[in-house]
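REQUEST ID: PR-0412
SUBMITTED BY: lab tech R.K.
PRIORITY: routine
TASK: structure prediction, single protein chain
INPUT:
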Amino acid sequence: MLAGSYAVLIADVMASRSRAGLRALLGAKLAAASKRQLRRKLIQLPYSVTAGDEFQTVIGNLRVVPEIILDLRTSFRPLSLRVAIGFGRISGRIQAPVNRLGGEAFQHARKAMEELKNGSLFRFDTLTAFSSRDEQFDSALNLLYGLQDTLVLKISEKQWETIGSFLDQRTLQRAAKRLKLDVSTVSRNLKRGYFWQLVETVKVSAALIERKFG
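STATUS: complete
OUTPUT:
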């Protein structure tokens, strides 16, 4: 990866004011995500709540950014997230807490989040945005994820549950056993939940990121 380049991920919970017990639920999910992703060496620092229902982290291996986004979208259900990614340099030493850090990557992540909130990227709803020094690179990733988000917004809770079990168990048979469903139902739920489109988005966007920063 390009020396000194990091990704900053900022996410927030959509429609959070209407959800009772959000603080406890969000705290539990952030703790689990931090433990899981630190163990797999996907993130540099534990997730930290920065304001209300917003949280962030730092990613050193830029190629895993798409994998992290899918992991968050799956594991945080029934919470729905807006996810903004900024690429660039970070000022000072990379150490917790993440909300005390700053620099270019944080500025770009904040810009991406503002674009999500004000709907300035496209004329359709989006859940994911990217920002870096390279506007052409940003446009390609934002369009790719904008099209994916159109599908993500249609995925039912039952389909998300199937996706999560399959990602955890890695085979149709084991996922079916956990969910107490037959294999054909699991396969159908994955297909109708656009799981294979999500997987291809991860592959293609990871390759684009690696080509840019690798």
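NOTES: The longest strand covers residues 6-13.
REVIEWED BY: pending
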